[in-house]
Amino acid sequence: MDKTTALATQILAGIGGEENILRLENCMTRVRVEVRDELRLDLPALKQLPGVKGYIKQGDQHQFIVGPGAAAKVVDAMRSLFNGAAPTVLAGGDDIARTKAQAKQKYAAPMSGALKKLADVFIPLIPAFIASGLITGIINLLKRPDIAGELAVNYPNVLGLLAIFGSAVFAIMNILVGVNAARVFGGSQAMGGVMAGILSSPALAQITLFGEALQPGRGGVIAVLLVVALMCWVEKRLRNLLPESIELILNPLLTTLVTASLAIMILQPLGGYISDAIAHGANLAIDKGGLLVGAVLSGLFLPLVLSGLHQGLVPIHVELVQAHGSNPLLPILAMAGVGQVGAALAVLMKTRNARLKKVIKGALPVGILGIGEPLIFGVTLPLGKPFIAACLGGAVGGALISYWKVATVITFGISGLPLALTIVSGKVMLYLAGMVITIVAGFIFTWIMGFNDPEE
Predict the structure, then answer these.
(1) CATH number given to 3-81
(2) pTM to 2 decimal places
């Protein structure tokens, strides 16, 4: 039996077997499970499993951190062990569980639900953002004579093609957001793409309305989100009002005419004002706030992650890149995860717990690469003080990154050492210096504050 199957078998036994699973899914690093009977859950045993690097509970969901790449494999292995159908969604026969889940969804906090929708719109785009940012970073390196010699001069077509590869996601950004937003808001995905296409059409520049020429793409993703939300609302209302015999024909026609008209006259200008305010406000805060703003942003970022409020920052990342071509916010926030590396190193040197040492050694490499969940939920957060010390270390690094005005060409999706490839020209060494200082700061704060070393 391979390690993945063995771990899947052990987790399945620890959560009370297949019949106790109400919902099973995974994200990048976690196996997420909702169970019918909490009493059948053996959490002490599950936390001690060799492949489980950490545990956290959010609402009714138990989340076991097994690491990047491993989470999907473990969930697939668990499903292969089921005798019946895999419970990827709520079980249809359990009316009590279904009612409970629906009630929870209905009465959830409005802010939490809105932020979850934002995340659902942008998270599927992360692979495209990562590819785009890394390709752009490679282009910046190849343009430097001290690194690539005369490559840029001798092979301009190569760089030209790479530039197309790296910029493609931004060329269709609004369309992608429109399609995803329509899916999240419960409308037609094709119509969502059409709405975004109307807002981005170059032909808008040839039209004058109320004495002013229209601006293609004004408002960026903010305008797209507003317009697609309205489109979904109109589409649903017309679906209920129109006779079935003509609904298929008239609904898309009327939805397009009504929504697009309101979009051009009201929502796109409104989105433009909001977008400008976000971009200028974020840049102004970083420029004028300097050390203090950087420290606050980075120091408080991980507590925001724990609460889920960090999802509200995603449109801000996108707007900064769309408006200015670079994002000064992401490198600041990246220092929050780097601080966890320094804190974990201090714990590694101080602890006598063999299992904790093993978890840290397994989580440190991916932590340096920007995937901090195994360190956060498996090491620093359970110990308490090291998590606070790591946040303080991140605040030190965030302050310096803000002061040095380090920016990246990527919106979001990567962090840690790989982010260095996407940093704007002339600031790469400052970003790397910020990482080193943050690791040292996190280490020192943790060493001074100490922690209660867990027994085996």
Answers:
(1) 3.30.1360.60
(2) 0.72
